[in-house]
Amino acid sequence: MKRFAYVRVEDAGTALSWAAKGGRFKAGGLDLLDRMKRGTLAPELLIDLAGWKEARGIRTTEEGWSLGSLTTLADLAESGHGLPAGIREAAENTATPQVRNRATLGGNLCQTPRCWYFHDAEISCAKKGGAGCPAREGRNEGHAVLSYGECPAVQGGNLAPILCALGAWALGREADGASRRMPLADFCKALETDWDRAPLLLERIEVPKTFPGTSHVEVRHRDSFDWAVASAAVAMRLEGGRIAEVRAWLGGVAPGPWRAASVEKDLAGLDPKPGTFRKAAEAALREARPLSEGAYKVAMARHVLEKALERAAARAAEEGR
Ligand SMILES: Cc1cc2nc3c(=O)[nH]c(=O)nc-3n(C[C@H](O)[C@H](O)[C@H](O)COP(=O)(O)OP(=O)(O)OC[C@H]3O[C@@H](n4cnc5c(N)ncnc54)[C@H](O)[C@@H]3O)c2cc1C
Questions:
Q1: Rounded to two decimals, what is the model's pTM?
Q2: Do 232 and 308 touch, CB atoms closer than 8 A?
């Protein structure tokens, strides 16, 4: 590891002024320090955000919830703030207790794309400024099956799909210090192309209280200590026992959280009885384009989507009782 300087800041302005000098934000440091140890990143200065109080904690608001970007995944999983079940599930399914106690919401949203070639300092690839993609002719069982371009690395963060499904907003500061509020989906989209530069220094995430039925379902190779092969997050509202509104987003299958838009119209107005969701899940995955080893991922994504829809519908019905 190369030598680096370290500063600990207590406010966004100071963090940004160090960033303007080439510093790199550090939250829990899990993703960042891993890259530094592997030799794929060598910042000269780390800006530790841990002392920034405004970016901490969960608040309940009239409209819903405000989640500090420095909130740990353990706090999201275990908080007593009545957070939507889908957020709690996404957090508690992440990694291990040790990781959840350290990893922050902001770091989870901005974590590095997942690809073993990309994370190997010895291997050149387009994402690291080289040419071509070794995964295309090599090992690609963990790679994207939807909506990818030259690079099929996936974004594996668990929190983005459920927060996008809930229509969350990202609040933070631009590089010049200006405050900005943008849909979290746009924040995540920007990271797909400019993956190493978040469009904002994230302060808080606002989550509206619109959907009574929420869920996060994932499959992993291992029961713990692993990212999802595929995950699905759903937010649903029923009216008169029928589906009035539904949002479904997938994780681990595309370069960012992926909106299963067909589900929204396919399910609108339907009775959420058993069997309703399989067809919608199959239709959503019809545009998948797996690489040579990725076909199993399409089946997994279909499965988690169906299960997440069922679970969100049951919760929405329960809330309505
Ligand atoms: C064994 C293991 C298993 C894992 N399994 C999963 C899993 O199943 N699901 C999952 O989702 N994740 C998983 N992870 C990843 C883990 O959740 C992330 O590494 C962690 O959430 C990153 O958070 P952090 O606070 O440590 O971020 P850091 O490492 O501090 O930062 C990560 C990136 O985000 C940027 N950043 C941090 N905070 C901000 C901010 N406020 N504004 C702008 N940019 C910011 C940093 O500059 C850096 O680029 C796993 C990790 C490990 C080690």
A1: 0.97
A2: yes
